[in-house]
Prior knowledge:
The complex is a heterodimer.
Chain A: H1 2-16, H2 28-38, H3 44-56, H4 64-102, H5 107-137, H6 142-158, H7 163-175
Helix pairs in contact in A: 1-4, 3-4, 5-6
Chain B: H1 7-19, H2 26-36, H3 42-54, H4 59-102, H5 106-130, H6 141-157, H7 162-181
Amino acid sequence: MNTAACAGLFLHFLMLSPMSIGGAITTVPEMHRYLVDQTGWLTETDFTTSIALAQAAPGPNILFVAVLGWNVAGLLGAIAAMGGIMLPSTLLTLSATRWARANREHLGVRAFSAGMMPLTLGLIIATGWLLALPFLRADDHRWSTLALIATTVLLTLKTRLGLVWMVLGGGVLGALGLV
Amino acid sequence: MNRPASLTALFIAFSRLALQGFGGVLAVAQRELVERLGWMTREEFVETLAIAQVLPGPNVVNLSMMVGDRFFGTRGAMAALAGMLAAPAVIVLCLAAAYGQLHAYPVAANALRGMGVVASGLVLATGFKLLPALNKSSLGKASAFGLALAAFVLIGLLRWPLIAVLALVGGGGTALAWWRLK
Lengths: 179, 182
């Protein structure tokens, strides 16, 4: 079961990788279909907590894939899932970057990088907004949550305070039940 | 602009960056690469991120590989990738192994919630901090800010699928830039 599961994980995530435009998070519905509905390797709760756990831990969010793999088949599962999701996108990113750098004076490349910038910035702000929304929708602590978000934005823009300290401060306020 | 002294320096810089990134690494990447290390300008950061975003794979991990590749080729890309993933992977898997015990304590869940709130504020602040890069856009200031607003509304408020917004706002922006640069 374990070897078969690892092979299955590797191949399935290998297939998802080229589709993960905008980050692996966009393929979560398909991972859910495969791991929970089709194979039954994970329960609904396993799946959701895997993602929440990786999002709370330091590091890129892509590591939720490692946690999913871990919960299916331990360390080998984590390696198989990460290897699958990273291999195609890594190769593609490297070759596309080099091509774009070699042709950086080409009109198409210049138009593309200038044309994509507004989208990128709109997307970053939308991501922050969507991350904040569930906290603001919750009934308790709505105002203190809003105040904490506003303080974070101001501190980031106006001071050079280390970002880790802000996150840890948020953790303390949360543990004290203030936000 | 500064540059990393060696592959080891690159690996350490990206490990340090990744380990500070609770709830996503974008805000820290901007702070470290642009403000602290000075390896790229604000405009280069947005431009690289724009390309990282349309390629498959995690955006900030793609960005780190592109930075590593620019300084040291394939070995640089691999050092950056390893820096981004190795130490955080160990931590997240230890957490996954310990989760069974941890989640009995509501205090842990509340602390995670507070960290999540701050993480969302950090992403917002990063967006605001990078916005002035549009002042230099060859699209012209008004169209550049207009397209950014459109992307925010379509994704953040109307919840359109990313691929449709990529095609519409990204495609529209590229077409307009082509016409302006021609």
